[in-house]
Amino acid sequence: MALRVAVVGAGYLGQHHARIYSELQDAELAGVVDTDEKRAQEVAGKYASRAYRNYQDSLNDVDALSIAVPTSQHFEVALDCIRAGKDVLVEKPITTTVSEADELISEAAKRDRILQVGHLERYNPGVVALTRMIEEPRFLEAVRVSPFLNRCFDVDVTLDLMIHDIDIILGLVRSPVKSISAFGFSLVTEKIDEARAWLEFENGAVASLTASRIAGEKQRMLKVFQKNAYMELDYQTSTVELRSPTEPGDAEIVRPEYREPLKEELKDFIRCIGTRERPKVSGIEGRNALSVVLEINSVMERH
Question: Can you list the positions of beta strands (E) in 48-152?
C-alpha cells in the first residue's frame, strides 16, 4: 500500500516535492498545504491531489509530510507533525537554532518517528561517486555561488547555500571541527549575501568555503586533496575529475549516470519509512551542519 504524503509549503521547492511524490510508485501525494489557498489548489490540482490551507487539517489523512515552508517555521511545523505521530522530511536548514534541532531529534526518537533533513546534495550522483573515492582528505575547497535570485531573503547565504557544502564536508572528513575563521557582508539584502569560511578539524584536515548569491555566474565546485589523489567535483554536471598530484595533466573523468537528486532523496525517505532505518541525513546530520553554520555566523558577527 502506498504511503500517503502531504507537502507543506507549495513554493519553489514544495512544488517539486509534490511533483515527485505524484510520480513515485510507493507514495501517494495525499495533500498540498499552503497558507495561500489559491497556490495550494493550483499545485494540488496539477497532480490530482487535495489542497489544504492549514497543515494540521491534513494530519488525519496522511502518514508522512515533507515540510518546505520558510526556515523560521520549520521547528513549529515539524514538531507538531512528529507529535501527531507522523514521519517527517524537513527542508534544510533543519531549524533556526541548535536547541530547536535537539528538541526535534529528541521528540522523533521518543516517538520512533523518521526525521530526515533535505540536504539533497548528498544524493547528487557526483557526490555519491566522490564519496567512494575518499580515503583521508587533507584539504577541501568548496565554491557555491549564484547570481542574485528573488528568493531566500529570510536567511543568510551561509544557511541558504554554504550549508550544503558544510554537510558534505562533515560527512567526508568525519572529525570534529576544531576552529573556525570567517568573514562576510551584506549588499542587496539585510542578511549576509557573501561569506568565506576556513575550518580546521581535529584530525588535521582543513576546509575553505565560499558562498555568494551576488556572483556573476552560477558555480558549484568541490575540490578534495588527499595523499596521492586530487579530486574535483562539478555539482552541476555531477562529474568528478580524479588526478595524481605528481601528474596533474593525466585525469580520469568519472561521469555517473544522472539521477535527479531530489527524487533520490524523496525515494530514500519513503524507503526509510518502510524499513524504519535511519536516513542518510537524519536530524543529527542536519543539526551538526546547522551548528557549524551558526558558529560561522557568530564569528562573522564578532568581526
Answer: 51-52, 64-67, 87-91, 115-118, 137-145
